[in-house]
Amino acid sequence: MVEKQILKLSKLCEHWAAHNNTHKESYIKWRDVAKEKGLNSVVEKINKAIEMMDKSTEFLLSARKDLET
């Protein structure tokens, strides 16, 4: 049972990381809209969210790697 849960957790980490990338694409699209409208503070905040999303993805993939060892 434990091994099954570990495998599931590994797959979830991979899924969540991929899901983050899907959201990131949307963030970039709407950040560019904000940029076109001159909404600089919004652009900065969305850029920060993108950075945080990238960091989250990095941690999830690192956790998945740890599960494989």
Strands, helices and their partners?
Elements lengths: L1 H35 L3 H29 L1
> What is the helix tally?
2
How large, in whole angstroms, is the Cα Rg? 16 Å
Q: Estimate the strand proportion.
A: under 5%
Q: Tell me the number of structural domains.
A: 1
Low-confidence stretches: none
Distance between the termini: 18 Å
Account of the protein in words:
With 69 residues, this protein is mainly α. It has one domain (2-68). Helices cover 93% and strands 0% of the residues. The longest helix is centred in the first third of the chain and has 35 residues, at 2-36. The radius of gyration is 16 Å and the shape is elongated. The two termini are 18 Å apart.
How is this structure best summarized?
The protein is mostly helical and 69 residues long. It has helices spanning 2-36, 40-68. The protein has one domain (2-68).
Supply the key terms:
mainly alpha
